[in-house]
């Protein structure tokens, strides 16, 4: 789905480059515009750190979901 939304990560959809990999603009089937970070394979340790931090944020007792 994300590959389709970004035109298969086409270079024309690339917004920029970050520490974890390039960022692409895309559009979901419902028309919602999104940004997708395609993680580079060379950032394995950094990805694990990011996922750990993400888990800590999600599990934080003072966070609530906004809708």
TrEMBL record:
Region (Disordered), start-end ranges: 1-23
Record keywords: ATP-binding, Kinase, Nucleotide-binding, Serine/threonine-protein kinase, Transferase
Stored SUPFAM superfamilies: Protein kinase-like (PK-like)
Protein's UniProt keywords contain ATP-binding: yes
Transmembrane segments: none
Listed GO MF terms: ATP binding; protein serine/threonine kinase activity
Domain Protein kinase: 9-67
GO cellular component, one term: plasma membrane
Superkingdom, natural source: Eukaryota
Record bears the keyword Nucleotide-binding: yes
Protein name: Protein kinase domain-containing protein
Record organism: Solanum commersonii (Commerson's wild potato)
């Amino acid at each position: 789905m994300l590959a389709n939304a970004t035109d298969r990560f086409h270079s024309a959809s690339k917004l920029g480059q970050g520490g974890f990999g390039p960022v692409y603009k895309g559009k979901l089937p419902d028309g919602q515009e999104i940004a997708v970070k395609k993680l580079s394979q060379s950032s394995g340790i950094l990805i694990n750190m990011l996922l750990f931090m993400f888990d800590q944020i999600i599990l934080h007792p003072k966070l609530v979901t906004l809708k």
